[in-house]
Amino acid sequence: MRIVTHVAARTLPILKLCWGVKMQSIGEQTAEPRKTGSDSEIINPIDVAIQPLLDLGQTTKIPANRPIFHRGDLCESYFLVISGSVKVMLIAASGREIVLYHVGAGESCALTTSCLMAGDHYPAEGITETAVTALVFDKATFHRSLHESEAFRKLVFADLGKRFSGVISRIEQVSFSGVDARLAEALLCQPQFPQVFATHQMLATDIGSAREVVSRQLKLFETKGWVKLGRGHINVLQPEALRQVLNNRS
Hints:
The protein is of the alpha+beta class. The chain has helices at residues 51-54, 110-118, 139-148, 150-176, 179-188, 200-207, 211-223, 239-247, and strands at residues 2-4, 10-11, 17-18, 21-22, 30-32, 41-43, 58-62, 67-69, 77-83, 86-91, 97-103, 125-128, 132-138, 195-196, 227-230, 233-236.
């Protein structure tokens, strides 16, 4: 299925409803009409069976590192990510953070779906990790499409089920795996492996730990010759040693 992401745009007001909440601090987003047959089209992984429904949404762009919803916000619209990535995370009163899951191209946010269906408020935070382009539907369109379109229902519930399974796995990792195993897994899963371009705080947030704990564990890995620490990046020298840590996880 093809989605246009670069066409003539009109500017939305700052308080435009976007991704389910009123955005107070994002600034300007753009809402773009969809059309086909253009060189500006991109292939999108969203199921082609819901193609007719896509004309009911509007394409919205949000810069990287911007909050898109906060804990306690009322959800007022549904979105499908066309490109980019969003992280959904919990932030404790102490400032500790943990990433619950990431929303990538062709995916929707499970919390947005559940909050829309229950008429509830967001229990977590959503932040763009990269520049994001998303297709946004208002609440009425979401509920009508869910009722009328079998293809849309399958897409929504399949994504919801997959996401909740992932969150359960996440809880299992944090509850029953040691910091060494979780950190080893995070290092091995980096997109530019064996180079890791992440701060100690970013890794701590990703594995549900404290920065100080991650720093100590990384230093231990370095002492063993498994990694080389640098400013803002880490070089994995012995990936097999990290995989062995995973194999030995409790």
